[in-house]
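We emphasize that the prediction below concerns an isolated chain of 206 residues; any contacts that depend on oligomerization or on bound cofactors are therefore not represented. The input was used exactly as deposited, without trimming of termini.
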Amino acid sequence: MHSPSWLRRAQRLVALSQNGLEFTKDPFERARWEEVRRLAADMLADGGGIPAEQVLANLAGETGYATPKVDVRAAVFRDGQVLLVRERSDGRWTLPGGWCDVGEAPGVAAAREVEEESGYRFRTVKLLAVFDKLRHGHPPATIHAYKLFFRCDLVGGAEATSEETSAVGFFAEDALPPLSLGRVTEAQVRRMFEHARDASLPTDFD
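Result of the prediction step, given as a token string:
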């Protein structure tokens, strides 16, 4: 499922305004790019039900040449069930993961995020999917991101919550809890089960 056309256009305007503000030296041109950013913020606010000033403040914090961010997610299986963590921010469940840090390899980030959010230790073994967040039915967001899904094998540790997660559990494919759709969709989780059943499947990508 692709994101609505208005969201793709708004995010494109965000990127154009950010790039313009990064490189322009002319104060009049800067004012025009700031107006483009305000219009994009209004579009995102209207479509996402978020206050326009909050959106604009988030956009203003992004500097440099605009490129998609990288979000990593870990698919961990035990006895035919997948590991999920419950986010404190919305009370819903997701594959453990988050943003890659600068200077950090994606596979390393995936294993780190799992340990931080679940208490378990893992070894990253395979890249399962590279998805464009705009193409997979996530709710509207101000940031364009690529989502990398890794298969990780359990090597130790013990269940533990964190500042970001309030519960940890393993779930069967036919008993998934309510998902945090800004982070992961049901279709993506089910695709991870397909990869777990057939290790010969190639990496998915958009």
